[in-house]
Amino acid sequence: MNIATPIARAAYSQREAPVRTARAQEYDLLARCTQKMAMAWTRRKEDFPLLATAVHENLQLWSALAVDVADHDNGLPAPLRAQLFYLYEFTATHSQAVLANRASVEVLVDINKAVMRGLRGDGGGV
User: Fold this and answer.
1) Is 89 part of any domain?
2) Residue 9: inside a domain, yes or no?
3) CATH number of the domain bearing residue 47
4) How many domains does the chain have?
5) Residue 69 structural domain
6) What digits encode the pLDDT tens for the residues 67-124?
7) Does any domain span residue 79?
């Protein structure tokens, strides 16, 4: 009988990953997209495909958010859902302007950061 074996197994076993909320996941996705766009913007002249990829990934994220807020079962208040959907529409239009070299990513970064503040509860929502 070896009492140390179960204790050792428990001590060295992998811990389960902490449960992440949907808000935390959305925040992390927005943060990654925002960082990629900002970095890619600074390198746009030497690496335009990097910028195009970053803007496209941001638009994919916003498309998913738009689908989510358009769902009638979404628990957010209707006015907030409408604002978020409008931001998706603006993001889609502005992304095209960025890719056509007619606009910068600055406003897209600002929008993402404002939504991130809202997700954190900093009162900086949309």
Assistant:
1) yes
2) no
3) 1.20.120
4) 1
5) 22-120
6) 999 999 999 999 999 999 999 999 999 999 999 999 999 999 999 999 999 999 875 5
7) yes
Nearest alpha carbon to residue 50 among 99, 17, 12: 99
Per-residue pLDDT tens digits for 11-26: 555 566 667 788 899 9
| C-alpha to C-alpha distance for 71 and 64, rounded to whole angstroms | 11
Contact present, 97 and 103 (Cβ < 8 Å) = yes
The Cα 81–Cα 41 span in angstroms is: 29
Mean pLDDT of all residues belonging to the chain: 88
Nearest to 116 by CA among 21, 24, 27: 27
pLDDT digits (tens, 9 = 90+) for 18-71: 677 888 999 999 999 999 999 999 999 999 999 999 999 999 999 999 999 999
Residue 4 in any domain: the answer is no
Angle separating helix axes 48-70 and 78-99, nearest 10 degrees: 160
Amino acid letter for position 9: R
